[in-house]
Amino acid sequence: MLDELLHLFYPRVCTGCHSLLASGERDICAACFASFDAFADADAAGYAVREVFRRNYPKINGLQEVWSLYRFHKNDRLQQVVHAMKYEGVHRLGKFFGSRLAEMISGCGAGEEFSCIVPVPLHRLKVVERTYNQSEVIARAAAAILQKEVRVDLVIRRKYTRPQAGLSPRERRSNVRDAFMPSGDAALEDILLVDDILTTGSTAAAVIQALKAAGAGNISLATIALAA
Ligand SMILES: [Zn+2]
Fold first, then answer.
1. pLDDT digit string, tens, across residues 167-189
2. Residues 134 and 182 in one domain
3. How far is ligand 1, taken at its centre, from the CA of residue 82, in Å?
4. Fewer CB within 10 Å, N side or C side of the chain?
């Protein structure tokens, strides 16, 4: 009731296309949803993500399992939505995508094996700038469903990097070089790393290195979308 009254005075619009939301729709309209390029299944997503690492970071081994929900295309509606999640502080979207990821993971019969979930850290100044770390929101939503602990103490971002968007693969690599450092003891931890969007894999690869340096055992990766 209150919700409907609020909608009268503050009409809710879709974060993807800014059209008015129908009742029952939340944050994203049905048309935008239908336009998202979802992977056919977890296997197809896993294969596509592994291919990125095979191509760009063949030395990163030990990536146990990988999951992704969508393919991300420049200027599509998913990009609008992800942008809103990252920069406009639309918290609920992060929760929504985190839950979807957890459903995909448990649908594969996985999740039990993780000892903790680790979001890709943001530099503390960026957290101030954006008010929250979107990967952490995604990770916490997934963790609530998978009933796992979120650890933000195992790796920290020590370098304030410029955004990866618009950079070449080589620039991306040097931008995040030494950006992360281990800050806790991850010995024997079986970790699920959560990243929002995977492009060349340079950020995830840098975090994986730091986690390995902290003694982590197996590392799996979950990301909302693969930009390709
Ligand atoms: Zn829409």
1. 888 888 888 888 888 888 878 78
2. yes
3. 13
4. N
